[in-house]
């Protein structure tokens, strides 16, 4: 793989994103993954199956998804290797699996909506979180947006980049397929507890390093954000992240909380059911649209640090 693919993909996607016209014309790779996941789930995750049968069916479905993605992406990469400057096309395709621009836009829209009214803020945040927006007050909407921004910094940007760096287009596509499967079927309810077991476990494994790397990058970004505390970012990440049920989700969220002096996490409602989650940090809890904008500044500086790291790694690979 050409070492320039990962930094150029980061730089390009951050500025351009995934063109809306492409979404309207051919859809998005995550949408394609979702259709295959749904197709398998409706046929394999049937009520008449036992728990063990559902778990086996989920493993088979995940295997089919990953095999399909691997065959397509390796095929694309092989064809591109025969073409002069084919690595540039691989870089362009890889940008589809990054979410820098859209994540920043969606979270920024929550701040704009919340400044207009609570109802507008709830509507905007409903597009980026799975919890019940109707139960949220202004502070709850702001907190939900910042928590999503923090967690998605890891699984929407850092983790895809990490696997692009290691394995090129097949790596980033396979990671995104697993992450999409986890978001769709990796839930701990009666329907998905067994069927989505494999997707949830594999997602945990793949995100172990990127989640902790994200906390490091967020900590480093604090040096470029007025008022942010790198010391507290890392201290809160180390002390509070292990309290989360997920082995990974707490790391970027706790780092954001410590960096900005916020309190994030805590109980939240999903489909009318309250879920008791740990709180991260002991700072400001009554968050506002201005706090969302501060979190977005930290997010942008984190992307800057990531791009710098990616460029440095590319330079080392080029001269070695």
TrEMBL record:
Give a yes or no for keyword Cell membrane in this entry: yes
Arranged from A to Z, the UniProt key words for this protein are: Cell membrane, Cobalamin biosynthesis, Membrane, Transmembrane, Transmembrane helix
Q: How does it sit in the membrane?
A: Multi-pass membrane protein
Q: Where is it predominantly found?
A: membrane
Q: Name one GO biological process term.
A: cobalamin biosynthetic process
The UniProt GO MF terms for this protein read:
ABC-type vitamin B12 transporter activity; threonine-phosphate decarboxylase activity
Where, by residue number, does the polypeptide cross the bilayer? 59-83, 158-178, 302-319
Its pathway, per UniProt, is:
Cofactor biosynthesis; adenosylcobalamin biosynthesis
Is Membrane tagged as a keyword?
yes
Q: Where in the cell does this protein reside?
A: Cell membrane
Gene Ontology terms: cellular component: plasma membrane
Return the similarity comment: Belongs to the CobD/CbiB family.
The protein's role, per its UniProt record = Converts cobyric acid to cobinamide by the addition of aminopropanol on the F carboxylic group.
Q: What is this protein called?
A: Cobalamin biosynthesis protein CobD
| Gene that encodes it | cobD
């Amino acid at each position: 793989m050409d070492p320039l693919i990962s930094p150029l993909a980061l730089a390009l996607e951050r500025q351009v994103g995934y063109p809306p016209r492409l979404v309207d014309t051919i859809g998005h790779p995550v949408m394609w993954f979702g259709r295959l996941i749904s197709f398998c789930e409706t046929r394999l995750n049937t009520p008449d199956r036992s728990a063990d049968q559902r778990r086996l069916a989920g493993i088979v479905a995940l295997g089919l998804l990953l095999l399909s993605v691997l065959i397509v992406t390796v095929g694309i990469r092989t064809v591109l290797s025969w073409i002069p400057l084919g690595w540039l096309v691989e870089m362009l395709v890889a940008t589809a699996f990054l979410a820098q621009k859209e994540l920043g836009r969606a979270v920024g829209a929550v701040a704009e909506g919340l400044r207009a009214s609570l109802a507008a803020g709830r509507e905007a945040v409903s597009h980026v979180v799975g919890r019940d927006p109707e139960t949220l007050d202004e502070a709850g909407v702001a907190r939900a947006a910042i928590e999503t921004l923090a967690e998605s910094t890891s699984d929407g940007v850092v983790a895809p980049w990490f696997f692009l760096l290691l394995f090129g287009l097949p790596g980033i596509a396979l990671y995104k397929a697993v992450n999409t499967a986890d978001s769709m079927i990796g839930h701990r309810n009666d329907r998905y507890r067994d069927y989505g077991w494999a997707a949830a476990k594999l997602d945990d494994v793949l995100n172990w390093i990127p989640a902790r790397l994200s906390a490091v990058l967020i900590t480093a970004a604090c040096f470029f954000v007025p008022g942010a505390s790198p010391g507290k970012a890392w201290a809160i990440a180390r002390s509070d992240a292990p309290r989360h049920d997920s082995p990974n989700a707490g790391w970027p969220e706790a780092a954001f909380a410590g960096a900005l002096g916020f309190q994030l996490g805590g109980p939240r409602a999903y489909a009318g059911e309250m879920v008791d989650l740990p709180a991260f940090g002991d700072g400001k809890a009554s968050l506002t649209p201005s706090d969302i904008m501060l979190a977005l500044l930290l997010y942008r500086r984190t992307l800057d640090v990531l791009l710098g790291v990616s460029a440095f790694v590319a330079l080392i690979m080029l001269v070695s």
